[in-house]
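User: Sequence recovery, please. Input:
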C-alpha cells in the first residue's frame, strides 16, 4: 500500500577506523564508516545505494543512484535518483541530484544542480536607442 522503490541491500562496509587510499567501485549497496581518499562510484549496470555515516569522510567524487550522507564529503556528489542529507552532513563541492531531502543542520558549500532543470537560452537584449 505504501510501497517505495526497494533499495538494493548493503553488501559492503568500510568500517570505522579503516582508511582506503584509491578509488572504490561497488554494486548494490555500500556503507562507509571510515575514510576514503579517492572516488566512490556505483557500478553502471545496477543502481547503487551509498550510505556515508556520521563518522565517515570521503575525499573525492561520490556517484550513486541513492546517496545518504551524515558525514563529510570533500568533492562533487552525483545522485541520479535521490540525495538525502542527514543533520550532520557536510559537503564541500558541487551537488547534482534528481530529488533532494535535506535535514536541518546539513550544509553544502558548493553549487546545487537539480537534474530536472533545463537551462533555457536567454533572449538577446536589444537597446531601445538602437531602434530607428
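Assistant: Recovered sequence (132 residues):
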Amino acid at each position: 500500500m505504501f510501497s517505495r522503490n526497494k533499495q538494493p541491500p548493503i553488501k559492503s562496509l568500510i568500517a570505522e577506523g579503516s582508511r582506503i587510499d584509491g578509488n572504490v567501485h561497488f554494486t548494490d549497496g555500500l556503507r562507509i564508516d571510515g575514510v576514503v581518499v579517492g572516488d566512490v562510484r556505483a557500478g553502471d549496470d545496477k543502481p547503487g545505494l551509498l550510505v556515508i555515516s556520521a563518522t565517515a569522510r570521503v575525499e573525492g567524487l561520490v556517484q550513486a543512484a541513492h546517496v545518504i550522507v551524515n558525514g563529510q564529503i570533500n568533492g562533487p556528489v552525483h545522485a541520479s535518483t535521490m540525495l538525502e542529507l542527514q543533520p550532520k552532513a557536510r559537503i564541500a563541492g558541487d551537488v547534482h541530484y534528481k530529488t533532494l531531502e535535506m535535514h536541518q543542520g546539513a550544509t553544502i558549500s558548493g553549487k546545487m544542480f537539480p537534474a530536472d532543470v533545463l537551462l533555457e537560452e536567454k533572449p538577446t537584449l536589444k537597446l531601445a536607442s538602437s531602434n530607428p
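Residues 76 and 93 are 5 Å apart (CA to CA).
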